[in-house]
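Hey everyone, long-time lurker, first post.

I ran two proteins through the pipeline my lab uses and got sequence/structure pairs for each. Pasting them in order. The first:
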Amino acid sequence: MTKSHRSHEDALQAIIDGETKRDRLARRVSMGAWLVTFLVLIGFGAVIGQNVARTWRLARAGIVQHGQVLEGLVPLLVVVGTTSLLLALVSTAAVFLRQRTASLADIQLRLATLEAMLGGDQGGGREL
């Protein structure tokens, strides 16, 4: 193996290592963001739940109408629905990107195989 070929491989390995580190950092940031999102959602649900429970007790006592109990649930339903929609969109995009990455990896593997076949046939004298 020549010196220039080895330095080229080292440079490629450094690029791959850098990309791997960035991927890990992005994954950690993503997981942290989703954890915070779900903790805030749980806290918001607890606050809305307390308000709905208080309104329910007042409705049973006849102080407020029963419709106000359902009105108290609307903010929670909007936030949960929006979060679910966001999660569905992000996961769908992730699935498509994973399929695209798998296709690219397949193409790269086929090109590497073709290159190895062509590189192994140096004495044949045939060119494409």
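...and the second, right after it:
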Amino acid sequence: MPLLVAVASVMFLGCAMAGMERDFTRGALAALEGAVAIAAIALPRSRTAIFETLKRFSRPAAAYSALLLLAAVMSGAFFVGGASDPWRAEQAMVGLAGTGFFFVAAAGAATAGGRNRMITAMLVTPVALTLLIILDRFDGQLDFFGISTAPMENRLAGPFPSPNEAATAFALFAVVAAFAIVDELTRRPAPRGTLPPPALTQRLFLPAISFLASLNLLALTGSRAGIAAGVVGLAVYFALAWLRGLKGRSGPRLVPIAAGAVALIALFVASTSGAGAMKRYVASDAVTPPYSAMTTTALQSWRERPLFGHGLGAYDLLPAGGAGASNDIVRWLAEAGLVGLGLALAALGGLLFQLWRAKDHGRRPTRGFALAAGLAATVVVHGLASPALSSPAVSALFAGLLGLAAAYVDPDADAVKIKPTARTRVLG
């Protein structure tokens, strides 16, 4: 249980510190993620779960390790560097390593401590952030108690430095909350000893509150890309959950009902909270760099080093650094080149493929695949409009939720075999 709380606490602290200076946030988050991973490895049950996770997802782990090696080489860790500014590349490499550690720590904690408990711990974060954002509004300044700078567009950003980053985070929380709702509706809880299992309304309370909070804050950001990403992520998740539910008894009925209820709630939120946020966004006179100009400049920078890029974290040094990258793809191309982008896609795609092939309660696809696909769709769609994964907090959140998804896999046959002992030999 303490490990579950530690994983959820890292998520909360990462979101709460998101609006602070980015280099500090990246370093602090990497330290926290590394500490949680060390704690998970130190505990016997979670250590076994982590090793099983790495064994099961060995190919995606190998691709991610190769990406880390590329980042290390570009930063000059082996006395041969290709980055224009090695210290910035080193920071990005440390952040990338922390994200990988957090994935395995979340997967190990969810497997050893209980997946439903892990979801409960994670879903407290958006509710806590919502309460803090409400308290922050009392002074009339949307600066999250002075930690984050108020956005020029007069849109809600909460603890995040921009409404777009806030939208990405709350869209991810909305997907995992929807996953928790469907999972509670379609499963039969095991009795807790002599006590009866908790009622369905009790089990649905936190996921429903978390979903409503995430959806309202997503709408209040006024981010068109974030809202579109949230809608696509939820649609992908519900489609895959329905596909899995066709092989069960309650899924064919309950999943469409849950999806319909979510759609109605989303329309209501969009017509209330979202309408005002979008009007303020359209009426704002904030000047933003042209999307096409940023894309063209980033592609020109990529052509200078097409294979290995300028080094992770080096985008601030490129000509387009003052305006920022237009989306995740051109940013990864400029920083990591074709090789780095290919390794990142191989790691994420390999994870999804393994979750598709694996079994969950004897059925395919796994619940984890539906969750991971919804999360990936959210990040990819938003990443087409702005660099969603450039935020250390969003990267940590995405890695932790993917770690949760990786836990929804049946154990290997070798792991459930009874090892021969003196007692089992006598019984045999």
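Reply from user beta_strand_b:
Welcome! Quick read of the second one: Residues 414-419, 423-428 have pLDDT under 50 and may be disordered. The CA atoms of residues 106 and 403 lie 5 Å apart.
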